[in-house]
């Protein structure tokens, strides 16, 4: 991993206790006594767009909470192409498979400039052994992984190209706070919904022409009603 900078290593009890998105993250339910059990430093990392947080098959020693930005989980195929199997946003946990003692299953690559908290697996194992306050959040994270996998299979890789892209835009809009959301590039869109880059480009251009999709320097917005009507 080559982050653009490491802002600082911080004491878990102090920093986590004042985290502005604490209610969204893995340590949401921890109490002061729980934080006192943290022995390894938790690092706050700023990673520029296009950089890898970790790579497939690397030893999984950390999990990463997404504090801002967006991350794609990528599997590269033998023919040189790739598929995006999940998108991670605010509050999501990257590298959750490390909790089962395995290597990382994907490449985690930032789509935007992204801020993450890097949490040592050893600390999570220690907390999970000594306090019941982590179990709820761990369970919720695993359930979200399953839910996202179901969405990917049922909505983003089934049906004709226009329907897949429409479902992706609805998904991105739903999970992004505010009026605008980040729109991945055409190649990434194709890798998410399993269509060619050319088909993704044509479909996005058509949606813009029809007034279903709007893009500005602030991001993208959609006509939800029109996209939901695509069958």
Layout: helices, strands, pairs:
Blueprint: E1 5-10, H1 12-17, H2 32-35, E2 42-47, E3 52-54, E4 62-68, E5 71-76, E6 82-88, E7 93-94, E8 107-110, E9 114-120, H3 121-130, H4 135-156, H5 161-175, H6 186-193, H7 197-210, E10 213-216, E11 219-222, H8 224-228
Antiparallel strand pairs: 1-2, 2-9, 3-8, 4-7, 4-9, 5-6, 5-8, 10-11
Helix pairs in contact: 6-7
Tell me about the biggest sheet?
A: 5 strands, antiparallel
In CATH, the architecture of the largest domain is Sandwich
The CATH class of the largest domain is identified as Mainly Beta
Proportion of residues in helical segments: 25-40%
**Content-based structural category:** alpha+beta
CATH superfamily of the largest domain: Jelly Rolls
Task: Kindly report how far apart the N and C termini lie.
Answer: 42 Å
**Percentage of residues in DSSP E strands:** 15-25%
Rg to the nearest angstrom?
Answer: 19 Å
CATH level-3 fold name of the largest domain: Jelly Rolls
């Amino acid at each position: 991993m080559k982050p653009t900078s490491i802002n600082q290593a911080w004491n878990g009890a102090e920093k986590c206790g004042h985290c502005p998105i604490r209610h969204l993250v893995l340590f949401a339910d921890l109490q002061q006594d729980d934080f006192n059990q943290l022995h390894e430093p938790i690092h706050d990392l700023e990673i520029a767009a296009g950089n890898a947080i970790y790579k497939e098959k690397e030893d999984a020693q950390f999990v990463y909470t997404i504090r801002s930005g967006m991350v794609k989980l990528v599997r590269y195929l033998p023919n040189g192409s790739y598929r995006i199997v999940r998108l991670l946003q605010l509050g999501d946990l990257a590298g959750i498979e490390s909790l089962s003692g395995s290597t990382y299953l994907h490449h985690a690559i930032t789509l935007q400039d992204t801020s993450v908290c890097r949490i040592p697996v050893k600390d999570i194992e220690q907390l999970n052994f000594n306090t019941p306050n982590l179990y709820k959040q761990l369970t919720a994270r695993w359930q979200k992984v399953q839910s996202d996998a179901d969405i990917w299979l049922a909505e983003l890789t089934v049906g004709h190209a226009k329907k897949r892209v429409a479902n992706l835009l609805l998904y991105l809009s739903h999970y992004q706070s505010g009026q605008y959301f980040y729109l991945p590039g055409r190649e990434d869109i194709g890798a998410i919904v399993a269509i060619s880059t050319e088909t993704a480009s044509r479909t996005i251009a058509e949606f813009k022409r029809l007034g279903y999709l709007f893009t500005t320097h602030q991001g993208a917005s959609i006509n939800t009603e029109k996209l939901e009507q695509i069958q």
